[in-house]
Amino acid sequence: MGQAVLESITYSAVCQDCGARLECCGVQALVDGSLRWDVEVTCSVCGFAMAVCDDVLPSDLRDQLLSEHGAAWLRVTSPWGKSIAIIRVLRAELGLDLTEAMTALDRVLAEEFSGTLPEMEFLARKLRSVGVSAVAARP
């Protein structure tokens, strides 16, 4: 399955019980072949505690992850003859239609397809599982 890949952020929120300001810690992780988003919160004023796990990373927090950690790029080496396999993975994992997948393929081949490190490593592992040499990397 590969080693876990994760990135974390802290952000503020309002306690749903007492209205105090909370410091939240969120982690996007690639664990056992799945992307997940985990948040843990404890209010120091009233003791309210919450842990949330999901596979969907909220877009504003994704933007914060990218801002704090920088984007990672999906890099494919020796892609010749592998376009159909790449398109299949992009369609299956990202829910793209054929036109969107072809556009994404062009971006992958031009080394312009980016996201969070866990997202790009997830796609790289899926590509490697179908015989495409791929890595997630930062510049």
UniProtKB/TrEMBL annotation:
Highest taxon, organism lineage = Bacteria
Q: What's the name of the protein?
A: Uncharacterized protein
Lineage of the organism:
Bacteria, Bacillati, Actinomycetota, Actinomycetes, Kitasatosporales
